[in-house]
Write a structure and sequence with these properties.
It is a single chain. By secondary structure, the protein is α/β, with parallel strands linked by helices. The protein has a domain of 192 residues: 3-Layer(aba) Sandwich (Rossmann fold). Helix content is 36%, strand content 16%. The protein contains ten helices and 14 strands. Helix 5 packs parallel to helix 7 and helix 5 crosses helix 9. The chain starts with a strand and ends with a helix.
């Protein structure tokens, strides 16, 4: 089986690649290395440095693939409010290019990694049958890409599935990006003896997903012949919800960090509570997500310690810089 993974040097993509190499797959993939790191990529991977938006290149490097997993994305939900052109171009144009190249190369199946940002600020827990109502350009772009994929695959008779991960954390997650990955940002700051930033009152609720658990579900969406044309939330359900304040306490306890966080004004268009239902995944995959948040945090701490704390890199342009833009970004305070 030949599998192609976009964003293969990133957090999810590189962990997927490691998983499929162990299964004996031939693994290839691409990354533009803006949010990824070559150190994440196994030597057994056929790697291409490429932009997903470049259709000609994508057509060439996807040749011969049986399955394409589109994991590449500038996964910056909050930043998308202030850099909408950057995010929309990457998510909508990049995804459409990958889908077009895949179909042109007659791949058997495409798996698109969407986001729970597709749901927006609706009643929780988010269920796959809910009518999505995204409230930021990132969520809107992910939902648009889903619709394009479904339309193209139905037109050209190509199998597809859509994974909806939420708040994935674990080893290999980028920890020097000031715009995303709250747990990694906190760990990186605390290891530098710096106070983490919490936006709003810190009582917003999330349900963090172990990357290994998500990979199991994505594999089912990629390889199970009986699972097709599905949109599936992957990750733990409401029973695993945790506030950002509680997350801070868990990390600070493990690191024996004694300073309080710095509280900043809440970010515009940020969903207060974002929790997904996992009932469909449990039904389809015969698998229940059992998250050990303390264990995951411990692994992340050891990974970041092994690599060493890093200064934060502001790799993305802020297109709209005004009174609504968090000063942590505009003034590069993180």
């Amino acid at each position: 089986m030949r599998i192609f993974i976009t964003g293969i040097a990133g957090f999810l993509g590189s962990n997927l690649a490691d998983y499929y190499i162990k299964k004996g797959f031939k693994v290839a993939g691409c990354d533009n290395l803006v949010g990824g790191d070559l150190d994440n990529v196994s030597k057994e991977v056929t790697f291409h440095k490429a932009e997903c938006e470049d259709l000609a290149i994508m057509k060439e490097i996807i040749k011969g693939s049986d399955i394409v997993i589109h994991a590449a994305a500038y996964a910056h939900e909050n930043l998308s409010v202030f850099s909408p052109s950057l995010i929309a171009r990457n998510i909508i144009n990049g995804s459409t290019s990958v889908f077009s190249a895949s179909i042109s190369n007659k791949v058997k199946r495409i798996v698109f990694c969407s986001s729970m940002a597709r749901y927006g600020n609706i009643e929780q827990p988010f269920d796959e049958d809910d009518i999505p109502n995204p409230i930021d350009p990132y969520g809107i772009s992910k939902l648009a890409a889903e619709k394009i994929l479904i339309n193209l695959c139905d037109t050209y008779n190509v199998e597809y599935n859509i994974a909806v991960p939420h708040n994935i954390i674990g080893v290999k997650q980028k920890y020097d990006d000031p715009f995303r990955n709250v747990a990694s940002i906190m760990i990186n700051l605390m290891l530098q003896d710096r106070q983490p930033i919490i936006y709003g009152d810190g009582e917003q609720k999330r349900s963090f997903s172990d990357v290994d658990d998500c990979i199991y579900c994505i594999d089912k969406l990629a390889t199970d012949p009986n699972i097709k044309s599905e949109v599936v939330n992957i990750g733990p359900g409401p029973e695993n919800e945790i506030t950002i304040n509680e997350l801070f306490k868990k990390i600070s306890n493990q690191l024996q960090f004694n300073k309080e966080p710095l509280y900043k004004p809440e970010r515009v268009n940020e969903v207060k509570n974002a929790i997904c239902s996992s009932s469909l995944a449990e039904k389809l995959f015969k698998h229940e997500s059992n998250q050990d948040i303390d264990g995951i945090i411990g692994k992340m701490i050891e990974f970041i310690k092994s690599k060493g704390p890093k200064k934060f890199s502001y790799n993305y342009e802020i297109e709209i810089n005004n009174e609504l833009t968090p000063d942590t970004w505009s003034k590069k305070l993180i």
